[in-house]
Amino acid sequence: MVNLAQMIPTMKKRIKNVKRKKSQPKDDNYLLQIGKGERLYKFYYFRPMAGRREHFEYRILTKEKTNRMFEMVSYNFKIVSGVPQKSSVTRVHEISKSQLEDIIQNVVRKTNTGPDEFEELDLSMFSTIDEQLESLKQHDRVDTMYIM
């Protein structure tokens, strides 16, 4: 299985404040915390054909911060014996929109991701976090136990 997070190391050199973690910290079940005035932006799901049996996905979650910059969290997700697992968590605390778009395009290009292997969930059209969460629930993309 390919760790897609390893395929974007050249882009990380241009981005400040990157923290790479081998596994999810025990005390941080919240991959993307939303502060006052912040909104979700887009969620990206890469589902390679080779990993479909294990329900493998590479996910990139983004939010727009109050200073008009973005935060990005990416990680590998798969289900092992019925248990969801996250690994290779990468967090970028401050990134511009153009840098984010470059990263997404590079991941698509370098992994030869086809249209049936990629999903972009655009949440930017909603004006409130409550509307965004409702959309995530409708798309079955949120575990409500993590919403505070």
SSE topology:
Layout: H1 9-12, E1 18-21, E2 39-46, E3 57-64, E4 70-80, E5 83-95, H2 97-110, E6 118-122, H3 129-138
Antiparallel strand pairs: 1-5, 2-3, 2-6, 3-4, 4-5
Describe the model.
With 148 residues, the protein is α+β, with helices and mostly antiparallel strands. It has one domain (4-146). It is 19% helix and 33% strand. The chain has three helices and six strands. It has a six-stranded antiparallel β-sheet with strand order 1-5-4-3-2-6, covered by helices on one side. Strand 4 and strand 5 form a beta hairpin.
What portion of residues is helical? 10-25%
Biggest sheet: strands side by side, in what order? Answer: 1-5-4-3-2-6
Series of secondary-structure elements, N-terminal to C-terminal: HEEEEEHEH
The total count of strands amounts to: 6
Any idea how many domains? 1
Question: Mind summarizing the main beta sheet?
Answer: 6 strands, antiparallel
Detail the poorly predicted runs: 1-15, 21-27
Q: What's the overall average pLDDT, rounded?
A: 78
Report the β-strand fraction as a percent range: 25-35%
Number of helices: 3
The assigned structural class equals alpha+beta
Cα(first) to Cα(last) distance is 34 Å
Q: What characteristic shape results from the CA principal axes? A: globular
Features:
148 residues; 3 helices; alpha+beta; globular; 19% helix
Concise overview:
By secondary structure, the protein is α+β, with helices and mostly antiparallel strands.
